[in-house]
What we know:
Strand order of the largest sheet: 6-5-16-13-8-9
Shape: elongated
Structural class: alpha+beta
Number of strands: 17
Radius of gyration: 20 Å
Amino acid sequence: MTASQPRIAFLASPSADAQQALQALVALHGQHEPDAADVLVALGGDGFMLQTLHRHGGLGKPVFGMKLGAVGFLMNHYRTADLLARIEAAEPAVLRPLEMIALTESGASVGSLAYNEVSLLRQTRQAAHLAIDLNGKPRLDELICDGVMVATPAGSTAYNYSASGPILPLGSRVIALTPIAAFRPRRWRGALLKADTEVRFRVLDPYKRPVSATADSHEVRDIVEVTIRESGERTVTLLFDPEHNLEERILSEQFVT
């Protein structure tokens, strides 16, 4: 990315506001394909930011998001003025996703990345019965619950927090293991794990009590086992205005009353 005029790829959600902003910004700054750009500018909400990371994260280009959606925790405020100066002054936040490998009843193996969380959820009215292994060692023989998740620091303020999981500082190299409506053991509230921990969930009764696994928005149904580990290769860099950086935002969430 050059200091004077970075090549920008503008990407927008389908919403009317985002599409209107896309036209205005392309008219001001031009448009480049993502693989030829120095920086990607994502226009939308957090859901669209996650789509952008999944589609283009492999390019290794930094992403500057602007909020034009319902939720914008991963986004900056939207304004058209001074965009180039904002990008130049932006502070980076490096995120490392989780890698999920899900095995299904049919014998298929499905892999996916998750920048927020991997969640396992019951598919029917029947509670899920799960076993949890950490680094190949059994840690919980049976968890009876609506579900369970593993969340990254960036995702810890989202679904994880709504399930009473902990908020994790950015860069802490820690992940959260959080149950969703645990029935047995009733007092288990989850665990904090080193980021390089391999977490394996085994579905104890997959035919009577089917379970799905979701990595961000990618769902795999009728699973029998899920293995989750932090990616050793993939990282993405988000850019934030200094007064609104992600690390400060995550910290502030811990003091919301």
